Amino acid sequence: MNIQNLLIKDSNLLKKLNKKLNCSLLNILMPILTYLGAPSFSIIVIIISFYKYSIYKNNLTFNLLTSILLSTLICYILKHLVNRIRPFLLIEDLNIKKIGIDDYSFPSGHTTLAFSIAICLCFSFSNFSIIFLTLATLVGLSRIYLGVHYPTDVFIGAFIGTVCPILICFL
């Protein structure tokens, strides 16, 4: 499969998900869920972990901070190397919601941050892993729902956000 076919399939999947999932309840929930991957949310998580759990959970704050920094750096570099234009600027008739975004879509920074946080929290609070991973996945889906990312943007963001904490926690 060449890159052009992948891009076409990516656009088609985005259109299907963006249009088929559209409903009034998700129009309210998805803009809220998307901010669980925002930089401001990650700062709040780090501060809470520092004050509440740094003594009790081995290096949670350090793991969160370094995982978030590493994954954000990788995401930033890829965004500026690839320069992929956001889908709502190229595809007509997407259901989009007004949210703050930067210039490029690949990879999804919100999804990257959400998975970095979720994976670190899974290592420290394994009983709640399904909740953390579900919320991170919903952040990724919200980015597609809002029309600001292609599915591959979200997939690669999830991959980066999963690998970085694993590397940090096990090295």
Word description of this protein:
With 171 residues, the chain is an all-alpha fold. The chain has one domain. It has eight helices and no strands. It has helices at residues 3-20, 24-33, 39-53, 60-82, 87-90, 109-124, 129-145, 151-170. α4 packs antiparallel against α6, α6 (109-124) runs parallel beside α8 (151-170) and α7 runs antiparallel to α8 (151-170). The radius of gyration is 16 Å and the shape is globular. The termini are far apart. The mean pLDDT is 87.
Q: Which shape, going by the Cα principal axes? A: globular
Beta-strand proportion: under 5%
Helical residues, percent: over 70%
Compute the number of structural domains.
1
Number of helices: 8
pLDDT averaged residue by residue: 87
Count of extended strands: 0
Which residue ranges are poorly predicted, with pLDDT under 50 across at least 5 consecutive positions? none
- How would a textbook summarize the main sheet? none
